[in-house]
Amino acid sequence: MAKPSSKPTASASDVDADRRKFLVGTTAAVGAVGAACCAVPFVGSMAPSRDVAAQATVDINLSEIPEGEAKTYLWQGKPVFVWHRNAAQIAAAKAGDTTSTMDPEPDAKRVQKPEWLVVLGICTHLGCVPIRNDEVGGWRCPCHGSQFDVSGRVIHGPAGTNLHIPPYTFVDDNTLRIG
Length: 179
Known about the structure:
By secondary structure, the protein is α+β, with helices and mostly antiparallel strands. Helices cover 29% and strands 23% of the residues.
């Protein structure tokens, strides 16, 4: 005759409860890992692309820009006008402080050094890229005719604000860092 076991036998409901706990825990763990796997690329897609991150700051050699001339540089995918203004252009910018512009702002607040003007080359109306306009001494937007003076202030047209100024610093006398 068989000897009875000293261990109590588990009932069917106890086995089902243990199995249910295991399945719920496993499903939750797999779900959490799956959510993390989906979230990582989604959050990563919100970060700037490599080419934009590489252009977070741009160093410009100012000795490349002759006095009285402007050059265009690319910063974070946007054109930036860097203008090495001569004495006549600086005087015209200061004279523009007293004329009526659509968005009045003194030239001294728009520049760190009077001989260097640094502005984003994007029209504040619809985002077109303005072109040099020697008639007014600044820029003219080809899309809707907005005109900007030698300090990047809007003087005519549908643009309501001046050309924006990007964050910039002078690293030394010959180097400008944008960003």
